[in-house]
UniProtKB/TrEMBL annotation:
It comes from the Eukaryota. The active site is at E165 (proton acceptor). It is a multi-pass membrane protein. It comes from Xiphophorus couchianus. This is Ectonucleoside triphosphate diphosphohydrolase 1. Catalyzes the hydrolysis of both di- and triphosphate nucleotides (NDPs and NTPs) and hydrolyze NTPs to nucleotide monophosphates (NMPs) in two distinct successive phosphate-releasing steps, with NDPs as intermediates and participates in the regulation of extracellular levels of nucleotides. By hydrolyzing proinflammatory ATP and platelet-activating ADP to AMP, it blocks platelet aggregation and supports blood flow. Belongs to the GDA1/CD39 NTPase family. Its main location: membrane. Homodimer; disulfide-linked. Keywords: ATP-binding, Calcium, Disulfide bond, Glycoprotein, Hydrolase, Magnesium, Membrane, Nucleotide-binding, Transmembrane, Transmembrane helix. InterPro entries: GDA1_CD39_NTPase.
Length: 482
């Protein structure tokens, strides 16, 4: 008689049911496309001194909020900023062609059409727009014409407000540090450009109503942030230098001896060129020669006096001000200082240490010719201006924003944190809605998790089946045996 197989019926039914469920699940899950492709976004930062193109990349399958964005590529546009082409606007457009062609190569062709392309202009165009609206519109027309020729999804070119520039710089720094998602204490952002400078931070106690125009409220990943931000037009380092020179040429002299420049420095400058900016135009001396000779003297304390004269510390109708009657709560927490802050402080080796007392020792003004020999790879204009710029930065931070020895030590001079620090990433994150206001409940298991579990179940079933077959076969052999 054939022995009854104990594996029969209930077990077979269970195995069949689980097997069917597993196969159905596997088929369903397998239908979701695997997470392989990437998405791209392009932002052009049209600054006062130059334009830079940034390409960002993020995993395509993580819709909107979970994928990490990284900087894939950057390209420095040759020549000056777009505002410098006011007299020949078509050249502003042409200047962008090379970097745009690079972008075409960098982004896979099949992604071109869905890759958003933005251009944001900052203080250089803000000034041109104030000075000559028609010229500013023509520059934008030329730039648009060039950008639209490329196969990307062009989203427009516009001037960012100072508030946007400050706030997006803050978003970038905190996004890169991963502080927003984790709800950590945020880092303030200090951006020094050529034509404007921004300060943005979350103050300890903040009465927004005192100056609503300085307040930006964000809700990011479920957290509220009340950001203080201010952009000082004309206080970027190039316009600040113009203001310092204007201060020293009020009487229209033929020669000036500038304490902020090296003792052997001597350059002929044109009065019309110097005063050709809304930051200084009203102060142009009535009577002046065509040119003046700008010579150096190299004296830190006197240089600081000249620079202090660019700030008005007198009038303040708020509880507290930085300068020029602008409301500013006391600085709070750590700060990331980037763009020209970084370039200058990195060159002067002042990025790690600070003692208000030792600045003048560090900034002993050597002969500019010696410095040129030591740093033959660096642009001569930058070299000649580093002492002015260094003194300007220290004065702006300590006298202007009221950083003291303790709070200054919390400033980190940064070029990048995996991606370059600047407003462009924050701008793109905002325009593509990449940072959600709320944290979405993430699925209990990611796609890969489901696939693994189903695979393990199927494997177990397979092993179970094999065992059963072996058992049945063995049993039959035994029962059929002699
Ligand atoms: N290597 C460098 N050394 C010193 N300064 C630099 C260097 N590279 C860029 N800069 C300066 O950084 C500033 C960048 O400002 P930019 O972004 O063009 O202007 P804005 O933000 O005011 O529109 C300019 O003053 C430029 O001269
Ligand atoms: Ca800038």
């Amino acid at each position: 008689m054939k022995e009854k197989n104990p594996w029969h019926k209930p077990l077979t039914i269970i195995i069949t049911v689980i097997g069917v469920i597993a196969i159905v699940a596997l088929v369903t899950v397998a239908e979701i496309p695997p997470p392989v492709s990437a998405q791209y976004g392009i932002v052009l930062d049209a600054g006062s001194s130059h334009t830079a193109l940034y390409i960002y990349k993020w995993p395509a399958e993580k819709d909107n909020n979970t994928g990490r964005i990284e900087q894939k590529h950057s390209c420095k546009v040759k020549g000056k900023g777009i505002s410098s082409y006011a007299a020949v606007p078509e050249k502003a457009g042409m200047s962008l062609t090379e970097c745009m062609q690079e972008a075409e190569m960098q982004v896979p062709a099949w992604r071109h059409q869905e890759t958003p392309l933005y251009l944001g202009a900052t203080a250089g165009m803000r000034l041109l727009n104030m000075e000559n609206r028609v010229a500013s519109d023509k520059v934008f027309e030329a730039v648009e014409k060039t950008l639209q020729r490329f196969p990307f999804s062009y989203q427009g070119a516009r001037i960012l407000s100072g508030q946007e520039e400050g706030a997006f710089g803050w978003v970038t720094v905190n996004y890169l540090d991963d502080r927003l998602k984790q709800g950590l204490q945020t880092t303030g952002a200090l951006d020094l450009g050529g034509a404007s400078t921004q300060i943005s931070f979350v103050p300890r106690e903040y009465d927004i109503s005192e100056s609503p125009s300085n307040a930006v409220a964000f809700r990011l990943y479920g957290n509220y942030y009340n950001l203080y931000t201010h952009s000082f037009l004309c206080y970027g380092k190039d316009q600040a230098l113009r203001m310092a020179l204007a201060h020293q040429t009020q009487s229209g002299p033929i020669t000036i001896s500038d304490p902020c420049f090296h003792p052997d420095y001597s350059v002929t400058r044109n009065y019309n060129t110097l005063y050709d900016s809304p930051c200084v135009s009203e102060r142009k001396p009535k009577v002046a020669p065509l040119n003046f000779i700008h010579t150096g003297e190299g004296n830190f304390l006197q240089c600081q006096e000249v620079i202090k004269s660019l700030f008005n510390f007198k009038s303040c109708k708020y509880s507290k001000c930085s300068f020029n009657g602008i409301f500013q709560p006391p600085v709070q927490g750590s700060f990331g200082a980037f763009s020209a802050y970084y370039f200058v402080m990195n060159f002067l080796n002042l990025t790690d240490v600070f003692s208000a007392l030792c600045i003048d020792n560090i900034l002993t003004f050597k002969l500019v010719e010696q410095i040129k020999k030591l740093h033959s790879d660096i642009n001569e204009k930058y070299l000649a201006e580093y002492c002015f710029s260094g003194t300007y930065i220290l004065t702006l931070l300590t006298e202007g924003y009221n950083f003291n020895t303790e709070t200054f030590s919390k400033i980190k001079f940064i070029k990048e944190v995996s991606s370059d620090a600047g407003w462009t990433l924050g701008y793109m994150l905002n325009l593509t809605n990449m940072i959600p206001a709320e944290t979405k409940d993430s699925p209990p298991l990611p796609h890969a998790g489901y696939v693994s579990i189903v695979t393990v179940i199927v494997l177990l079933l397979f092993i179970l089946c094999v065992c059963r077959c072996v058992w049945v076969k063995g049993h039959l052999t035994l029962s059929n045996g002699p």
